[in-house]
Amino acid sequence: MLSSYRESLVRNRRAYYAKEIGDLRYKLAHAQAEIAFMPNVSKYVLETSVVLGALLLSAAQFLLQDAGHAVGTLAIFLAAGTRIAPAILRVQQGMLAIRSSAGASKVTLDLAESLQHIEVPKLAKEDSLETEHRGFNATITLSDATFTYPGKAEPAVRDVSLEITNGAFVAFVGPSGAGKTTIVDILLGILPPAKGSVTISGLPPMEAITTWPGAVAYVPQDVAIASGTFRENIALGFPPAFATDESIWETLRVAHLDDFVRELEKGIDTEVGERGARVSGGQRQRLGIARALFTKPKLLVLDEATSALDAETEANVAAAIQSLRGSTTVVMIAHRLATVRSADLVVYLDQGRALAMGTFEEVRAQVPDFDHQANLLGL
User: Quick check: is 122 in a domain?
Assistant: First the structure.
């Protein structure tokens, strides 16, 4: 909720958000108070019960028999109570701890169960990392791929088949929720298809990625920025020996971020700030593009990677990406149709199905909605 402060301020809904946050804080405080209060209450209730029980039995013995029996009963009861009470309290505290942790434990156990079928890839040795990617062929083959998210009745991607040749520029377009990001996740091996198959360079995606580290690069719409310098963020996950000044500046130049970084006091060794606090949304995306281009990938996947750029910067970055054609396979998801007009293959997705494939003009002729959008943009 705090992350939407600007929206709540502009919509004049601060009171509503304050009430929602207050209610959540009250529930949290109530739960924490109950967890802290119950063990102490139980202790005093149990101790009181032991003492009262001992007194009642002793009184009964005193009235029915004599003082000697009463004193003996009281001593035995108190001795037994002092030994048993701590054990009962420990059991009760354990039950309270289990009860308070049950919700989080269920989520963790469900996640662990869902991860059991995932095969963890073997990590490559650092000394095998290179930027030439010898033997890698950036050809992608997708055959009757189908994927359904857990808990959903309808597949997010249904029976999609296509072949992306080495060096091609391919664009996935379509309305929101059409399955564009899902199909990219399938291509990258992040989501295993429930039916069908996918290969990169003739191998399953994760096997290809681990065989040729850095040959495949991905730029999301929301780029994650790690705490550290520009140099460390661009060479993220790779040995420091790769992060030479020349290689870092080259990727920054291609991503049109070099002018900004040169103005900083420490240049590429300037701290980016926690979660990228010192960069704007557009600079964050260009940093993500620079990170992807750092290993000179043969397969570059862009998921709305230029959505936060201004028109001039987007055109410059698009021109840089276009220059990779022939040597690098580019797979792009884009809502801005102007960026995919020159694609070798445009795939129009709707409700998880590939309704049309071909050049930009061929897809326009096949899909009226796509043609309408292009006309609105003057394309």
Answer: no
Burial of 215 from C-beta contacts in 10 A (0-12 / 13-18 / 19+): buried
- For residue 325, which of 361, 359, 295, 299 has the smallest C-alpha distance? 299
On the CB side of 14, how many CA atoms lie within 13 Å of its CA? Answer: 5
Please compute Rg for the chain using Cα positions.
32
Question: Residues, the chain, total?
Answer: 379
The answer to whether residue 49 sits within a structural domain is yes
Separation of alpha carbons 352 and 117, rounded Å:
24
Contacts of 155 (CB under 8 A, 6+ apart): 146, 147, 148, 194, 352
DSSP line for 7-41: HHHHTT-HHHHHHHHHHHHHHHHHHHHHHHHHHHH
pLDDT at 308 over 80: no
Q: What is the pLDDT of residues 159-212, one digit of tens each?
A: 999 999 998 999 999 888 888 989 999 998 888 898 999 999 999 988 888 888
Query: From CA 293, how far away is CA 235, in angstroms rounded?
Result: 10
Query: Domain check: are 104 and 168 in the same one?
Result: no
**Which structural domain range is residue 108 located in?**
2-114
Percent of the chain with pLDDT over 90: 16
- Domain count of the chain? 2
Choice between 4 and 35, residue whose per-residue pLDDT is larger: 35
Report pLDDT for 12.
56
